[in-house]
Amino acid sequence: MSEDIFIIGIILFWVAVFFIDEINKRKLMSPRGKWDILRHKIIKSRKRCESCGGIDILQLHHINPVGLGGGNESENLILLCKNCHEKSHNASFRHNSRIIDQSYGEIGFIKEKKILSAIKFGNTIEITYTNIYGLTRKRKIIPKEIYKEKGNKYIKAYCYFRNEDRVFRLSRLQIDDNVKSS
Question: Hey, CA dihedral for 127, 131, 137, 140, is it positive or negative?
Answer without folding.
Answer: negative
